[in-house]
Specification:
Largest sheet: 6 strands, mixed
Strand order of the largest sheet: 3-8-7-4-6-5
Bound molecules: adenosine monophosphate, magnesium ion
Helix content: 40-55%
Structural class: alpha/beta
Length: 330
């Protein structure tokens, strides 16, 4: 799942003691343990560990690795290895029935959230997985606090839940367009200038609470460049099969780019915790972004110590007896 390490020198700042990978390598001969270790080291460079000092401009939108056309099959292979490992980890998580995993995806339009979700989860048993997309809140949703609709859609134990957007919209789009807040049903006395600071605290506490109750959260910001977004919008306009993905409102929203970047930066600064890390994923290359994402998910799951439940003596005796009954059938 991870390219080959070349030097310890970090091309992208803000990556602490983590290693930078500068070349892709065939990983098909590695053992499961070695692959997981690769995934850990590789994803670490995109994990925000020190939120206080976080500066978005120090994170790249394009891959650290110099990619050529010859790297395509290798990237495909890496994603496939990752998908297989994820399926195996999910199977254990489902059987163990203790932990749940919540993956949160946030990004500007056309950054590749939908495609990443589709490809990364392609090998996962649909029974153990649920995706929820959060749009402009409905009137029912507006009749509740901003965490309510997310709380309702949290994954059960043993399952993976994916949030395509989330409660983070309430410190992003709602912050960029404060008019949304003004027309919400929140009592005016709480619409104070420090509302975002308070929401960050509420979110930190909420995520800590979820973790302590068995939900591991991993958060992805797909960091696409302004230039790449423009290119993808034009593709959506020019390609009839992609027309459905395009909305004129997206172009209007693009006009608020720098406000959004400030809101994202402040959000990551204030909500990067040990319990629920943010990964800033370079998203200008879709295949590379997917490898980063799957590596981070594998890393998070291996840290949970997932194992199939141990079958006790009593259960073994029960299985034996059941086998005998089946064998005795005429
Ligand atoms: P899409 O994901 O492209 O279908 O778009 C969903 C839209 O819903 C985006 O423009 C989001 O910004 C918007 N949205 C999601 N959550 C909220 C919210 N809490 N308040 C206002 N708009 C939201
Ligand atoms: Mg959209």
């Amino acid at each position: 799942m991870a390219p080959k390490k070349k030097s310890a020198k970090s091309k992208s700042p803000g990556k602490g003691e983590s290693e930078t990978f500068t070349k892709l390598e065939d990983l098909s001969k590695l053992s499961e343990k070695e692959l997981n270790e690769r995934a850990r080291k590789f994803s670490k460079q995109y994990c925000v560990t020190d939120g206080d000092k976080f500066q978005l401009r120090k994170y790249r939108t394009d891959p650290d690795v110099d990619l050529g056309p010859e790297d395509k099959p290798l990237m495909k292979q890496m994603l496939q290895l990752g998908v297989e490992e994820l399926a195996s980890l999910q199977d254990k998580m489902y059987a163990q029935d203790k932990w749940s995993l919540l993956l949160i995806f946030q990004a500007m339009d056309a950054a590749g959230k939908d495609g990443a979700i589709k490809h990364v989860m392609s090998g996962v048993n649909p029974q153990g997985c649920q995706v929820t997309a959060f749009k402009v809140p409905s009137s029912e949703e507006l009749d509740h606090d901003y965490l309510w609709r997310c709380q309702k859609n949290l994954p059960e134990r043993g399952r993976i839940g994916i949030f395509n957007r989330s409660y983070y919209e309430d410190v992003l789009v709602v912050r960029v367009h404060e008019s949304i807040l003004q027309v919400s049903k929140l009592p005016e006395k709480f619409m104070t200038p420090d509302i975002w600071k308070k929401r960050f605290k509420e979110i930190r506490n909420y995520e800590k609470y979820l973790y302590r109750n068995g939900t591991k959260i991993v958060k992805f910001f797909l960091n696409v460049s302004n230039k790449e977004q423009k290119k993808r919008f034009i593709e959506r306009i020019d390609n009839p099969e992609k027309n459905w993905k395009f909305s004129t409102a997206d172009v209007k929203e693009r006009g608020y780019w720098s406000d959004y970047m400030k809101a994202y930066e402040d959000m990551i600064r204030n909500t990067s915790t040990r319990e629920a890390s943010w990964y800033v994923v370079p998203a200008d290359n879709k295949s590379y972004a997917r490898i980063v994402i799957i590596s981070a998910i594998i890393n998070a799951m291996t840290e949970l110590g997932l194992e199939y439940p141990v079958v006790g003596k009593e259960k073994i005796a029960e299985l034996k007896a059941a086998r005998q009954i089946l064998m005795d059938e005429k």
